[in-house]
Amino acid sequence: MTGQLRSELLKLRTTRTTALLMAAAAALAVFGACVEGATRATAELAQEDAQRTMFSGGTAGVFFATLAGLLAITSEFRYGTIRPTLLFEPRRRVVLAAKGGSSSLIGLAFGAVCAALSFAAGLAILSARGVDFAVSGEHAAALALGPMVAAALSAVIGVAIGALIRNQAGAIVALAAYAFLVDAALFGAAPSVGRFLPGKAGDALAGRADDALLVPGLGAAVLAAWTLAFAVAAIVRSDRSDV
After folding, report:
1. Residue 152: which domain range?
2. What's the mean pLDDT in 176-185?
3. 67, 12 in Cβ contact below 8 A?
């Protein structure tokens, strides 16, 4: 297991895809903080909810971490490298666990980088506009640490989705359609139900300012439950299917 985990980490660290996804996530986090900080009136920006929204760029890392996990396994099926991988390590559950573990570590990095950049950009804007930092310690901790946990769990979900669908293009389309249509639409139409979806549970865990979301602790529990459910489904699919 240790050797397989090292192998998966090496793959993720040495491919351009991971670096490009990280760059895109970081850019989106900074852009979101700048837009929120520059477009709000000074009096509005001094309020805690507005600052929480500005500092919530760490959530950008969550989606891109999910995508990184998905690509970590669908790329193997796309290029046929899953066969030598399974020849080296025929225990499919070990391969899936290694991919999930390595992707979760990469997800931690995505969340940490995006949260740090979001805070750096937001604090610079507050200083430039002469506005005091108004976020409470509890919310600041959620905004700083929540994206890391959410991105780590979401990366594992990405691996599971890739193992379930296998076709890279189909998996990417399914993920994007869910994130931007199903998740957002259901939450907008029925927040009491939509907030229990994995995307909104991740937003809650990451400290996003929205009264309709779950509290961060419950969001973490819901996202962990979704992660477990997807992982079990991926294991069953892997055990019962040929490569």
Report:
1. 2-240
2. 85
3. no
